[in-house]
Structures are given as C-alpha cells and as structure tokens.
Amino acid sequence: MKFETSISGPVAVIGDVHGQVEKLKRILDRLRKREDYQRRWIVFIGDLVDRGPDTKGVIDLVLSNIAEHPQTVVISGNHELAMSGSLGIHEAADENNWASRWLDHYGSHQTFESYHVPFGEIEKLREAMPDEHLALLENLPWAVEHPEYYFVHSGLETKSPFETQRRILAARDFSLNRPSWLCSKRLPFQDPPEDCHQVVVSGHAYVPQVVFARSRILVDTTGGTGGSMSCVLLPENQIIFSNPEEANEPLWKPNSMMSDLNLSPIHRR
Fold it and tell me: Model pTM?
C-alpha cells in the first residue's frame, strides 16, 4: 500500500475520526452524492483510531473507500504513531516508550475492544489485526502537499524553515521522540514559518467549530468524544457535517495568529 504525498485539485479533508464509524459513514455518504466526487481528493487528517467505539470498523471503512475511490490519502496522527510503535510496526527509539504511553494516555482500550482482544494484550492485538490494517498503519505519510495547502496532523514549527521541516516529514524519522508535527498541542495554534506559502490544514486539537485563518485551517470538531464530525471542502471553504443539527458555524479569523482564539485547556487535547 502506497499513499500519494503530492496532490492537486479539489479536496475534501476529514477531521479526526477516532473510531466514530457512524459519523464517518454519514460524511462519506454525503460526499458520494456530490457531482464532483470522482475528481475530488479525500484527505484524512489523522487519528482514525482510539477513543471512539469502533477503530476496526473505521479502518475497514477507510480501506473500502480507498478501493472505491483511489484519490484517498490518510495522514498519520499521533494515535496511529503510538499504535504502530506499540505494535512494533516501526522501529522506535527506546525513550519513546510507545506501548506504555499508548496504553495509559491514548484511550486505546476501545481499540482493543473493537478487535475483541483483552486490553493490554499487544501481541494478541497484532495477531488479530488483518494484514491490510497493519499495512495501512505501516505506510501512512506524515504530511501531504498540495499547491495551495499543506496537510499535517498537528502543524508546523513557526521558527524552523519550512524546507527543513518538509524534508523531515517526507522522510518519516521514527527515531524521533514524539515528533512535534504529529504530537504537539501547541502547533495547531501557531503560524507556519514565513517561507511556507501554503495554508496549513490540521486536526489534533479539538475546536468547537472549524477554524479558518489566513494561513491555518483546523478541522477536528469532535476530539473523539462527541459532537459533529466535519469535512472541509477546499478550495470552497464549505463544510459537510456528520450531524448538521449539532454543528456550529465555522470560525473565521481575519489574521493568521491562532493564539487569540482563547480556547480553554479542554479544547487543546
């Protein structure tokens, strides 16, 4: 399995799914009804797994969608990174201690339940997972480029040159201890570096409504714990909601600085 990391044309970017398979089904059903569906890229911004009730069902659905609609890419979130590190899919530095962190901090017990494996039995979980699921986790890119947008799970460091970050993300260096572009809780609310000329699109941090700013778009409107999942259509800046009756109006910021959103700590998980 190989994902494209350079795309162009119209995009539908889906926020963090976190095992919420019914919400994802509604999003995909609404996308399929669009006249432009066949020419539109679908980008999953990461965190398919954990917290919600059916990680296995979500991965099954994503794989089915890839088979039906090859213009689909999935970016690694910190939850996929922790899960694949715990399962030994990628070699990781000892200080990452992924297995301990994933079991203690990531809401992974729902993932074990979805594969009918006792919580904490990591070897049994790997044995229970279909080869296609393991292959998906193994091959997730850390970022996807578009002429107008840069898709990455958490964000970019403001003071580090974009080209340097771009090379590291393309290389997927699994020896890094909790790479900030996937794991940082501060990057979603920071500007990208000045030499990044694309709008950076991220999930990772729960926001009560989709945030549009000059240089940033944030799309995780459930945090895996409730509310309406969002799918942002680009370049139209339109939103498809999984539960329209629960959705809030998008938040438009006239500048690129995200620090003035004044989100409480619960919104920065």
Answer: 0.93
